[in-house]
Specification:
The structure holds 2 protein chains of 2 kinds. By secondary structure, chain A is mostly helical. Chain A has 11 helices and no strands. In chain B, strand 1 and strand 2 form a beta hairpin. The chains are: A mainly alpha, B mainly alpha.
């Protein structure tokens, strides 16, 4: 089947139109001169200018960025370890509970996660701020990382690891020299996923942040509750641009890594 | 030794920051409201020894849960959340299935690009995607302007702040969660099976119904759970797109906590919500495990 039937063409066109038109409208109207967001009054970049001068947004963006970097890095380490345990460690005491704790946060309503973490932090007397948001974000995003990494681990040829062990590697060396390079694309996309989840999160951050640390989504939410504003459109456009560039760059990097890997495998097959 | 450490670190992390907090929620749901910080009593004071612990347990009661059954706001909110979640899951499936199907039937060299186009909105902020619809659906919004301009309607439709807007918002934001698992199930399917069914006398529709749908069932199940479970507790969409008539339990919990500052009742709301979700969450996890094992 090389060509799409008309039905499939129509569903793809409508589907992508539905997904993208709202964002395209948002981007177009961020360049609107008028304060009235629904009436076009000519091209202008003045809302971007106002955005750059808005100290509250800049502060919130800086908090958000720091939280995202710390929590996604921690989540990647913990999530990769968890994936490795789930896929490779066989049976151990409490395995069912462990895999339950990995899958449950994926679908757990954020209000519950947020509330329960807040009550924990208050219970142990931890002041709410950047640290508590990082802990909270790490907890739920490590589960996403672990799902991404374990899907790569299950398809991976375990005999490569065994060969490294036979050739005298310690388990840690085998992991570092053989396993890690092969699962690296999955680990990187896990990190990116954790990073965007953290950038994006409103509900859990609202529960676990204190007056000293406000994240960008919290700021956006309180502004948006009052209605549509051109400044928020400009901010959204910037965020969409950053994510789009990031995702495209990441997919090019992983594509290249995968192609190189395939070439290596083919070369290895030839020399055999 | 290393293996034990590798297991222990993520395990202890999840126990401490995922499991333990639930027990704290349970405990507070059994406490009384107090005008203090933290705004509930009793707090567990281990310095009192055994007597302190006994005293602590004797003060716990089911008052907050009784309260949930007495005020009909709560059970109405639970029911309406489940209803909204079920309807929007079906809507998402209806919208998502043809897209996933068309992606799986597209020429192979297009697929990575199509896949990226589906994932891209998923990476952009959830909040922004919901916000984008506020401008479209409002009374002076772009949709009404378009409809008025084309002459389809003569007075603007009220869509924002109704349940219709909530459904649109949910389908829009959760669509990738539905498409991706179905697509991955359909992509793995062997196309010759359809040809075989057609050779054996099935019409195209019959072949679709008897072969394609059953083979994509694990994807459909995963997609439906991934949409339905989080939507039951959804907060952002009903609070931005819904109106005063949109009753959802995530919003009730939020207001109980942040506006009324009634932590024990908020905790009781969370405990009941969790009880409602336990069955679908366990089913979802089983489905995922079965899939992982099938892939091995």
């Amino acid at each position: 089947m090389n060509r799409l039937s008309w039905f499939n063409t129509v569903s793809l066109t409508l589907g992508f139109a539905f997904l993208y038109i709202p964002m395209v409208i948002l981007i177009i109207f961020s360049f609107n001169e008028s304060k009235l967001v629904t009436v076009w009054a000519g091209f202008s970049t003045k809302w971007y200018g106002e955005l750059i001068q808005n100290q509250a947004f800049l502060d919130a963006a800086w908090v958000t960025l720091r939280v995202a970097v710390f929590s996604s890095t921690l989540a990647t380490i913990l999530g990769t370890a968890a994936a490795y345990v789930l896929v490779r460690s066989g049976r151990f005491f409490g395995r069912t509970l462990f895999s339950g704790m990995i899958y449950a946060p994926l679908v757990m309503p954020e209000v519950i996660t947020g509330l329960s973490l807040l009550l924990l932090f208050i219970g142990i007397g931890l002041d709410r701020g950047i640290l508590t948001i990082v802990l909270a974000h790490t907890t739920f995003s490590m589960c996403f990382v672990s799902v991404v990494v374990s899907s790569r681990l299950v398809t991976f040829d375990q005999s490569l690891e065994e060969a490294a062990l036979d050739l005298g590697c310690s388990p840690a060396q085998a992991f570092r020299l053989v396993t890690l390079p092969i699962i690296a694309p999955a680990v990187i996309s896990g990190w990116l996923l954790a990073f965007t989840l953290s950038l994006d999160d409103l509900v859990i951050a609202s529960f676990t942040s204190g007056p000293s640390a406000t994240t960008l989504p919290i700021k956006i939410f309180s502004a948006v509750r009052l209605g549509v504003s051109p400044e928020i459109n400009a901010l959204s456009t910037l965020m969409i641009a950053v994510v789009t560039v990031g995702v495209i760059a990441a997919s090019l990097v992983t594509k290249r890594a995968m192609m190189r890997q395939r070439q290596d495998e083919q070369a290895a097959a030839r020399t055999e | 030794m290393r293996r034990a450490l590798l297991i222990a670190v993520p395990y202890v992390w999840l126990l401490a920051l995922f499991m333990v907090p639930f027990f704290i929620v349970l405990k507070i749901s059994l406490s009384d409201t107090a005008l203090a910080i933290p705004p509930y009593t009793p707090t567990l004071d281990l310095s009192g020894g055994w007597a302190g612990i006994k005293d602590f347990f004797s003060q716990l009661d089911l008052e907050n849960f009784v309260w949930l059954t007495e005020d009909d706001l709560y059970w109405k909110a639970y029911l309406s959340s489940v209803k909204i979640a079920l309807i929007s899951t079906v809507l998402t499936l209806i919208v998502g299935y043809p897209i996933a199907y068309a992606m799986a039937r597209a020429p192979e060299e297009w697929r990575p690009t199509l896949m990226m186009l589906i994932i891209l909105p998923f990476w952009t902020s959830f909040l922004i995607r919901v916000y984008a619809w506020m401008g479209i659906l409002s009374n002076e919004g772009y949709l009404n302007q378009l409809l008025l301009w084309t002459g389809i309607i003569s007075t603007p439709l009220t869509i924002l702040n109704t349940n219709t807007a909530v459904y649109i918002g949910i389908v829009y934001t959760y669509l990738p969660f539905m498409i991706l698992p179905i697509y991955s199930a359909l992509e793995r399917m062997d196309g010759s099976l359809i040809e075989a069914a057609e050779d054996l006398g099935c019409s195209r529709l019959q072949a679709f119904w008897l072969v394609t749908i059953p083979l994509s069932r694990p994807g459909i199940i995963a997609g439906c759970f991934l949409v339905m479970i989080p939507v039951i507790g959804e907060f952002v969409i009903p609070s931005l797109l819904g109106g005063s008539g949109t009753l959802m339990i995530g919003k009730v919990l939020w207001e109980e906590f942040f506006s009324n500052r009634d932590w024990p009742v908020a905790s009781a709301v969370a405990v009941v919500l969790l009880l409602i979700l336990v069955i679908p969450i366990v089913l979802f996890q089983r489905n995922q495990q079965k899939q992982t094992e099938a892939e091995k």
